[in-house]
Automatic annotation (TrEMBL):
Family the UniProt entry places it in: Belongs to the TMEM229 family.
Organism name: Mesocricetus auratus (Golden hamster)
Source organism, top-level taxon: Eukaryota
Keywords on record: Membrane, Transmembrane, Transmembrane helix
Name this protein carries in UniProt: Transmembrane protein 229B
Originating gene: Tmem229b
GO annotations of cellular component type: membrane
The keyword Membrane is assigned to this record: yes
PANTHER family cross-referenced by the UniProt entry: TRANSMEMBRANE PROTEIN 229 FAMILY MEMBER, TRANSMEMBRANE PROTEIN 229B
Amino acid sequence: MASAEPLTALSRWYLYAIHGYFCEVMFTAAWEFVVNFNWKFPGVTSVWALFIYGTSILIVERMYLRLRGRCPLLVRCLIYTLWTYLWEFTTGFILRQFNACPWDYSQFDFDFMGLITLEYAVPWFCGALIMEQFIIRNTLRLRFDKDAEPGEPASPPALANGHVKTD
């Protein structure tokens, strides 16, 4: 049987970045529909979102690995949500110095410096739950088979009576 290794941190970062980018576009499209009834569903984001989401979720992955046996799921999601606010504020503040911040929450009632808003607390919390339970946990289960040939299907494991042979 070929040796399979966990994905590298860079590979996981890439998957997290693409996932975050996609979710950002879908969220903004849904928001546009709910707020303005826009049937075109125009979802938008910025290339900065790749770095922001990839790095943030990789850091949350580290948190998950340290916290999973120590505190309940809802507490972990609260911690991830607080981290998200800190990360969004920090990256937004840095990008704003270069006139490159792609978001502005100034029109929201509970914003802070236009960089974060409490109106997104519930979506961020729900996103944190989904992120841990589906995205991070499944990404950590992915394996890279360094011996596989590109374009060739992986050989199935040897079976004995319907079970994987472990010799």
